[in-house]
Design brief:
Helix content is 35%, strand content 12%. By secondary structure, it is α/β, with parallel strands linked by helices. A 16-stranded parallel beta sheet has the order 1-2-3-4-5-6-7-8-9-10-11-12-13-14-15-16, with no helix packed on it.
Length: 493
C-alpha cells in the first residue's frame, strides 16, 4: 500500500482540524509502530510535520524490530538534525545486522540544509555494512560537498544492493566532490572487484562537474572487473545534465560509451553540458573505433551543437550505435542541413563498411533545432521512427501547409508526432487535420498521438478535428483550448 499524506486529505483528518493537529504524522507513525502489513511505502510531503521527534520515533520502531513491512521511506524536504539522522542510520544498520524479515530498501530523507555533516551522520553506521539493504537512495538537493560525496562513495562502493543513487542538484560538490566520491571506492580494485557493482542508475545533474571530475568518474566506473572478466553485470543509466563537462570532458565520456566490450552505459543524458561540436566529434570518432553496443538512449540536448557536429554524429550513426533507440538533439541549432545529415543515416545511405542504415533508432527529438520546413519534411519521410518531436521550429502556417501532404491519411511509421509551438494559423491547422483525415489508399496508419498546442485552434479547427475523429476515432490530438472570434486567449480559463 502506498500512503500519501497531503493537505487535501480532508476526510482522514477532518476531526483534527480544530485541535491544530491537521499536519501531524501521529496516526501514520502509529501504523508504522503497529507494523501495518498494508503500509509498505511511507510518503511524507513537505507540508506535514516531520522533524527530529518524528524521525526518532520512526527510527525506534525500526531499531526495536516493531516494523518489518515498511520498505520505502520518502521524507525529503524536512529538516532533520544530524543527531536524528545518526539514529536513523543506526536503526537501518540494526535491521540489516539482525536479518529481520524484510526491511527498508529505499530512502529519501532530509532537506537542502542537510549538508556534509548530516550526510556523514546518515551514512556513518551504514558505512560499516556497505549500505546495508539500501537499493535506492535520494540525496538530491542536500547541499553536499566534498565530505558528503566522500561518505556516499565509502558507504556504497562495495554494496551488492545499491542500484539507484541520486546525488543531483548538489552544486557545492564540483570536481572536488566527485573526486572524493571516486577516491573512496579505489581501494577495492586490487581485490578483484568493481566499484558500485549493483549500480543501475546514477544521477549527478547540476553538481558543477568539470573535466577533472568527469575523468575521475570515468576511471572509477571502468576500473576493475567481475570474476567472469566483464566490466559490469549490468549497464548504467548515467544522468549528467547541466554540468560544466565541456569538450575537454568528452574523452572521458567517450570511454564510457565506447570500448572493446561496447558501452558500460545503457542511457547517457548530458543535456546542457557545453560539449559543442568538438565534444560530439570526440564521442562520434570513438564510436566509430569501438561501437557503442548496449547504449540505448543518448540525450545531447542544449549543447551548442551545429550542423557540423550533427554531420559527425550522423557518420557514426550508420555503423556505431547498434542498440540506440532514442536520440535527443533538442535545443541544438543544427538547422535543416544538420537534420538532413542525421536522417540520411537512417534512410539508406551507404556506410564505409557497406551497412545500409541505422535501423534501431525509433525516437527522435528535434525540438528547437531550427530545422525549418525542409528539415521537418525530411524527418517526416522517415520509414523507421515511431516518435518524432518537431516542437518550436518556427514552421508557421506555410510549414503546416507544406507538410500536410506528407501526413495524408496519417503516417505509416510514426505513432507519436509533436508539432506544437509552431505558430501556425487556424487555416493551416485545418489543412493539416483534413489531410490526416483524408485516407490514403494502401497506407496503414500508425499515428496514435498528435500534439498541436501552440498553434491557433478555433471553431474551424474544432470542426476539422471532429471530421478527423470520424475517420480516426482512436487518434489522440492534444491542442489548445479553442479561441473563438472576438475572444482573446488571455480570457480563456
Amino acid at each position: 500500500m502506498h500512503l500519501l499524506l497531503y493537505p487535501y486529505d480532508y476526510i482522514a483528518h477532518k476531526q483534527h482540524r480544530g485541535s491544530g493537529s491537521f499536519k501531524s504524522c501521529d496516526s501514520l507513525l502509529k501504523r508504522v509502530e503497529e507494523n501495518d502489513a498494508k503500509l509498505v511505502e511511507l510518503v511524507v510531503l513537505p507540508m506535514k510535520t516531520f522533524g527530529a521527534a518524528e524521525c526518532d520515533r520512526l527510527s525506534a520502531a525500526i531499531a526495536h524490530g516493531q516494523n518489518t513491512n515498511l520498505q520505502t521511506i520518502s521524507a525529503s524536504g524536512h529538516h532533520i538534525p544530524p543527531s536524528s539522522l545518526k539514529r536513523f542510520s543506526s536503526a537501518l544498520t540494526y535491521q540489516y545486522q539482525h536479518a529481520i524479515n524484510g526491511g527498508i530498501t529505499s530512502v529519501a530523507i532530509g532537506s537542502k540544509d542537510m549538508g556534509d555533516e548530516g550526510a556523514v551522520e546518515l551514512l556513518g553506521c551504514l558505512s560499516a555494512e556497505n549500505g546495508g539493504l539500501l537499493k535506492h537512495l535520494d540525496l538530491g538537493w542536500k547541499n553536499l560537498g566534498k565530505q558528503g560525496f566522500g561518505a556516499v562513495g565509502a558507504t556504497f562502493s562495495r554494496s551488492k544492493h545499491m542500484a539507484h543513487l541520486d546525488l543531483s542538484r548538489n552544486n557545492n560538490a564540483g570536481c572536488e566532490g566527485v573526486v572524493s566520491f571516486c577516491d573512496a571506492a579505489k581501494e577495492i580494485f586490487g581485490k578483484g572487484g568493481i566499484a558500485f557493482p549493483a549500480l543501475e542508475q546514477l544521477n549527478l545533474t547540476e553538481c558543477n562537474i568539470g573535466p577533472v571530475g568527469m575523468q575521475a568518474l570515468s576511471d572509477v566506473l571502468l576500473s576493475g572487473e567481475c570474476q567472469d572478466g566483464k566490466k559490469r553485470q549490468q549497464r548504467i543509466h548515467l544522468v549528467l545534465r547541466s554540468n560544466l563537462i565541456g569538450a575537454d570532458g568528452c574523452p572521458a565520456l567517450a570511454a564510457l560509451v565506447s570500448g572493446t566490450d561496447g558501452s558500460i552505459l545503457s542511457n547517457l543524458q548530458i543535456g546542457q553540458c557545453s560539449i559543442g561540436d568538438e565534444g560530439i566529434t570526440t564521442i562520434s570518432n570513438a564510436a566509430v573505433s569501438n561501437p557503442c553496443t548496449g547504449l540505448m538512449v543518448l540525450d545531447i540536448s542544449d549543447n551548442a551543437i551545429t550542423k557540423d557536429g550533427a554531420k559527425k554524429l550522423a557518420e557514426s550513426l550508420l555503423v556505431s550505435w547498434p542498440d540506440l533507440v532514442e536520440l535527443n538533439l533538442a535545443k541544438n541549432n543544427v538547422g535543416s542541413e544538420g537534420v538532413a545529415s542525421v536522417m540520411a543515416s537512417l534512410l539508406g545511405s551507404e556506410g564505409a563498411n557497406g551497412n545500409s542504415k541505422n535501423s534501431t533508432l525509433k525516437n527522435l527529438d528535434l525540438t528547437s533545432t531550427d530545422c525549418g520546413v525542409d528539415g521537418a519534411k525530411v524527418a517526416l519521410t522517415s520509414g523507421g521512427l515511431t516518435t518524432l518531436r518537431l516542437f518550436n521550429n518556427h514552421l508557421g502556417s506555410d510549414g503546416f501547409i507544406s507538410i500536410a501532404p506528407l501526413l495524408q491519411g496519417g503516417h505509416a511509421a510514426i505513432e507519436h508526432l509533436d508539432l506544437g509551438g509552431n505558430s501556425a494559423d487556424e487555416d493551416a491547422v485545418v489543412a493539416l487535420l483534413d489531410s490526416i483525415a483524408n485516407v490514403k489508399e494502401g497506407l496503414v496508419n500508425k499515428l496514435a498521438v498528435l500534439e498541436i498546442g501552440g498553434n491557433t485552434f478555433g471553431d474551424k479547427a474544432a470542426e476539422a478535428l471532429e471530421r478527423l475523429k470520424r475517420v480516426w476515432p482512436k487518434l489522440d490530438v492534444a491542442h489548445d483550448k479553442p479561441v473563438r472570434e472576438g475572444e482573446d486567449e488571455e480570457e480563456q480559463d
